[in-house]
Amino acid sequence: ITDLAPADVVIEAVPEDLGLKTRVHAEIDRVVAPGTLVATNTSGLSVTALADATATPSRLVGLHFFNPASTMRLVEVIAGAATDEDTVSRAIDLAGALGKTPVRVRLIAPGAIPGWILHEDDELLVVDKPGDVVCHPSKAGPWSSLVGALREYTGLATVHLIFRLDRETSGVVVLAKTSAMASRLQTALQRRHIGK
Description:
By secondary structure, the protein is an alpha/beta fold. The protein has helices at 18-31, 47-51, 85-97, 113-116, 146-154, 179-190, and strands at 9-12, 37-40, 60-65, 74-79, 101-105, 117-120, 124-129, 160-166, 171-176.
C-alpha cells in the first residue's frame, strides 16, 4: 500500500468484506497525500462505515463500476455521511473522464418509506419506489439499498426480495418478511402459479 503514496486517485476494489475493506482504507488513508481522491468500488457495503475507519472520512466516496467494467457505462457515485461535495464532484468528473456515465446514488430517507408502501401485513411488504431515488434493489447496505432500507425500517433481521416490476430504479417491489413466505412465493413463481 505504501506504493500508493504518490497517487492522485486510489480506487479500492478488494473483496466485499467489511473488515478487510476497513483495514485497507485505514492503511490507504495513512499513506496518501491530503488531496488524493480515495474511492471504494463496493456494491453493497456502507461508504460511511468504511470512511469511519479513516482519519479523513470527507475524502472517501463510493465509485461502483458495474461488471464487466470494460463494457458497462454506468458508474454509481455514492457519498458517505461525511463525504464532502468536492469529493463527490471529483468522483463524477473522474467517471466522465473514463468514458463512463456517473449516476449519483442518494441514501434513502427513512421518512420517505411509508409513502411507498402499497401493502403490508405480517408476512408481506409491497412498495412502489419512485424513480428519482436511485439505489441498488437488493444489496444489504442500510440506506443505500432498497432491501437494506426496508430491513432497517421494519426492524427485521432479514427482508427477502421476491421480485420487482421495474427498470432497475423504480417500480413495484414485492418482499417477504419471513423465510416461509419467501419460499412459498418463490415456489409459486417457479411453478408459474403467480407472475409478474
